[in-house]
Each structure stands twice: as C-alpha cells, then as structure tokens.
Amino acid sequence: MEAAVAIVGLLIVLFVLAGVFVTVKAVKAAKRGVDRTVAHARRTVEDTTLRARQLAQPGVVGELAQLRLSLRTSMRATQDVLYGGSPDDASLSEAIGLFERLSAHGHELDDELKRLEREPDRATIGTRLPDLRERLERITHSAESLRWAARDRARKFADDDLASLSDQIDVESGALRHWTRVEDPMDPLRDPVPGRPESAGPGETKAPGRGQTTEGPARSGAAAGPSDTAARSWGPVPEDPPAITARDPRTQPSYPWQKAPRTEDTTR
User: Fold this and answer.
1) Predicted local distance difference test score (pLDDT) of residue 145
2) Which of 3, 199, 202, 229 is the most buried (most CB within 10 A)?
3) Is 184 helix (H, G, I), strand (E, B) or coil?
4) Is 182 helix (H, G, I), strand (E, B) or coil?
C-alpha cells in the first residue's frame, strides 16, 4: 500500500513538473513573439517618421532623414538575405559574421545621424554631412556586396539543381516513350522483303497496293485478319498454342530399369 502511494505521489510530481516546463516554454515563446511584434512596430513607426521628415522638412534635416532611411533599408535587406539563406547554406556563416561586424559600424552611424537631428546648429551639420555621406556609401556598398553575392550563390545552386532535374526528366521521358514494337525475324506475319509482293495462297487474292492477302468471296465483309491486327497492336500478337497429341507407344524411349512386357501364351 505504501509503495502504491509513493508511485502515485511520484506521478503527480512528474505531471506538475511537466506542466511547469510547458508553461515556461509557452511564456518564453509568447514573450519572443511580443518582442518581435514590438520591434517590428517600432521600426515601422521610425521608417514612416523618416519618410515624412524627408518630404516635409527639406534641407539639412531632410537630408539626415534620407541618409538614415537609406542606411536602415540597405542593412535590413542584407540581413534578411543572409539570415534567410543560412539554414540552407552553411557557407553563409562567415558572411553573417562579417555582416555583424558591419552592423556595428552601421548602428554607430545611425546613432550619430539621430543625434545630429536634434542639433540646433545647422551650419555644423552642413560641414559634417560630406563625411557622413561617405561613411554611409562605404557601409551600404559593403552590405550590397554581401547581399548580391548571397543572392548570386543561391541562384547558382537553383540553376544547377534545375539543370540536373531537367536531365533526369529527359532520361525518364525517353524511357517512358519506349513503346515501339520490336519486330521478330521469325514472325510469320512480318514481310521478309519490304515492298516485295507475297504470293497469294489458294482461295486468296492480293489487296491492291498492300503486302497483305485477303481471302476470296467466302471471307468478303469479315473482320480484319491477323495482319491488320498486328499493324494496329503495340506488341507481338500471341500465337495459338500447339495442339496436344498423344505419344506413340512405339516411339517412347526405353530404360534399362524398366521390365520387359510379359507375353502370354495363347496356345492354351
């Protein structure tokens, strides 16, 4: 009885632990989903604000917004390509490491541009814009190089796979088209010499212009003969099985272990 109570208590503890584990996993997954949603919403709001500022505030402020928007768009596109293709191509891991190092420079430039948006001295911003624009071009050029290299690699793999698949399909298509009948040289229905008329048998007449024979008036209007059937079929026409005849006792072989037939005396 005590053993049964211990087993039941152990099962209850295991069920509680499993429930806690599942609950923690669900809470973490929900938290990650919420964080992704909040980050996506924040990026969308920031991008919309930058576009509105670029259009509504021409001059230094609008140019800063344009630089930030170009930087964020290029880095986000490269990130999507690299991280999206990494599960299928392990060779992108090194490219991802380089992109993370490049992202550090990109975040640093984005923070600097964001601080300059709150700078009241427009003349100072104007003097620093050429240097900021050059840094932006270098970062975006490197990001584009990684992005297009990853895309070219993925397209190359897709082209190779498509070419291999096309070759396999061509081979299989050729194998599926092997329905042509192979003529048997011993087939009595085959014309031994193409274009040479065969001699008609008794009671048969040659069909004009063809290598087939048809019987006389007794077979007029009947169904097509074996030649017509062979011409329309996709395989050899089965022949009639030979008739089964009894063996002649005189031709049967004799063996040394067989007893000789006993002759009865008829003189009795």
Assistant:
1) 94
2) 229
3) coil
4) coil
